[in-house]
Design brief:
alpha+beta, MTH889-like_dom_sf, four-stranded antiparallel beta sheet, DUF211 domain-containing protein, Alpha-Beta Plaits, elongated, DUF211, 87 residues
Length: 87
């Protein structure tokens, strides 16, 4: 068994929702999620983001759904940290 404890994602989203609301939507998925968002690039219609999520057991599918529900798209998974468990 293993648990995803950290991911860094490349995400493209429209200007709305703003970055604060976008981060809150992802953080709300898990009880212990820490979400850091860095705006990499801004153009007329979109923002390119680096989204870092840390938690004891990240539900990646739920994160991906939250990204889509906020009008954004996942471009790539750039970093993953996974820990094995004895459970």
């Amino acid at each position: 068994m293993s648990r995803v404890q950290r991911v860094i994602l490349d995400v493209l989203k429209p200007h709305q929702p703003n970055v604060l609301d976008f981060a809150r939507a992802i953080a709300a998925i898990g009880d212990d999620y820490r979400v850091d968002v860095r705006v990499i690039e801004v153009d007329e219609n979109t923002e390119t983001l680096q989204v870092e999520i840390e938690g004891s057991d990240i539900d990646f599918e739920a994160v991906n759904v939250a990204i889509s529900e906020n009008g954004a798209s996942l471009h790539s998974i750039d970093v993953v940290s996974v820990a094995s468990t004895t459970e």
